[in-house]
Amino acid sequence: MTTATPPVAIIMGSRSDWPTMKHAADALDRLGVTWAAKVVSAHRTPRRLFDFATSAKTEGYRVIIAGAGGAAHLPGMAASMTELPVLGVPVESKALKGMDSLLSIAQMPGGVPVATLAIGEAGAKNAGILAAQILALSDEALAGRLAAFRAAQTESVHETVED
Ligand SMILES: Nc1c(C(=O)O)ncn1[C@@H]1O[C@H](COP(=O)(O)O)[C@@H](O)[C@H]1O
Which of 29, 89, 126, 160 has its CA 20 to 30 A from that of 1? Predict the structure, then answer.
């Protein structure tokens, strides 16, 4: 039996990135979008990255979320080998608090875009939501779930500072 490829791949440079990247997975779960997560590193597993990125589109993935910290080359290198949209999440690093990750991901040369999110958990969460928004362009049911999510979020923000 073959199982269908989920629309979203969440790749990350190390297992240590998962506590951050899990927030992307949680956002996708909330919106009813399936995903697969893999540890893939441009530095430590270059062949695994090459194999993943060059076959991701034909495998059936539609959006790639790539998280990495420090010298975060993973999102850009993945983007260089696939036409799928790549959403980059800068994972917070110890030494430079994620500024290194952010700049490594954001400062791509013209012609090879990576859509760069905020540093850390909020960036990962937004990557999940943004991936769902991209998929919702051709999925009305998902567009409806996104609208409901936004409405519930708005509803949950009270104007008063006390209950
Ligand atoms: N930035 C990259 C890449 C890459 O860009 O290919 N591979 C691993 N890493 C990052 O190294 C950090 C420390 O990794 P370890 O915790 O495994 O030492 C992680 O945040 C990972 O994303």
Answer: 29
pLDDT at residue 48 greater than cutoff 80: yes
Classify domain 8-155 by CATH number: 3.40.50.1970
Which residue(s) pair with 38 in the sheet?
11
> Which run of H or E residues covers position 9?
strand 8-12
pTM of the model: 0.97
The preferred substitution site among 12, 14, 49 for testing ligand 1, maximizing ligand atoms within 8 Å of CB, is 14
Pairing outcome for strands 8-12 and 63-69: parallel
**Pairwise CA distance, residues 65 & 29, whole Å:** 14
- Parse the chain into domains and list their residue ranges: 8-155
